[in-house]
């Protein structure tokens, strides 16, 4: 990575609800990544006192996913895009490192046997080339990248689609872009499973949960912070996992046991019974 390259984060949001969500996420990003430069692309200005370093108004676009306009217009040499329904709980600047060798980085979708993940655009793909979750993406600026993002935007408009991942997957397949696949802790979608994790797992870096944008407002008692979004025990367990993660805290010798698990003897006995071994 050249020292002269600019690095930054972008959000895209339409409507007051998503602007507020992006603001909450950006606060968590700045708390865990001091010095980060964060830009918002939106359809109206956020309230005074926001934490964004710059706010850009979206153009009147055919796209139903403003993230692609935000990525195309991003002013950085290397950009990390985050959906508004995320919380950042650790240093994620190492994602920029992947762009030394790759054009784009993202994580696989998690529920790959769900109806949503089986949606296709024009081509049927095997599970060995799954969708990429476009809620966390890192890109390196180039003309090829700009053309690719414009193509995704145009294809979505032509298909009148509000779902971007099947189109993104197909166009990525046809492109010559080099993609790095991020580990799941950089786009942690199964937040209910955090209590089953021990310190043998890498701690989640980015919590990405659609409950944050539930229309009924029942995501949590206080979904403006990660501590409010998670139950107290789960939040404390997450903090313990972060402190035990050797990539985040080099030399850490902390051990963390799962909060919830089936006792080992019972689990093995049940497994042997299911396998017909006892």
How many strands?
9
Strand order of the largest sheet: 3-2-1-4-7-6-8
Overall SS class: alpha/beta
CATH topology of the largest domain: Spore Coat Polysaccharide Biosynthesis Protein SpsA, Chain A
Number of domains: 2
CATH superfamily label of the largest domain: Spore Coat Polysaccharide Biosynthesis Protein SpsA, Chain A
Terminal CA distance: 57 Å
What is the general shape?
globular
Radius of gyration: 20 Å
Q: What is the name of the CATH architecture of the largest domain?
A: Alpha-Beta Complex
Protein name: Nucleotide-diphospho-sugar transferase domain-containing protein
InterPro entries: Nucl-diP-sugar_transferase, Nucleotide-diphossugar_trans
Pfam families: Nucleotid_trans
What does this structure look like?
The structure is a single chain. With 278 residues, this protein is an alpha/beta fold. The chain folds into two domains: 7-185, Spore Coat Polysaccharide Biosynthesis Protein SpsA, Chain A (Alpha-Beta Complex), CATH 3.90.550; 187-275, no CATH class. The protein is 30% helix and 16% strand. A seven-stranded mixed sheet has the order 3-2-1-4-7-6-8, sandwiched between helices. Strands 5-9 form a two-stranded antiparallel ribbon. The longest helix is centred in the N-terminal third of the chain and has 17 residues, at 16-32. The radius of gyration is 20 Å and the shape is globular. The model is unreliable at 216-221 (pLDDT under 50).
Supply database-style keywords:
two-stranded antiparallel ribbon, seven-stranded mixed β-sheet, 278 residues, globular, alpha/beta, Spore Coat Polysaccharide Biosynthesis Protein SpsA, Chain A
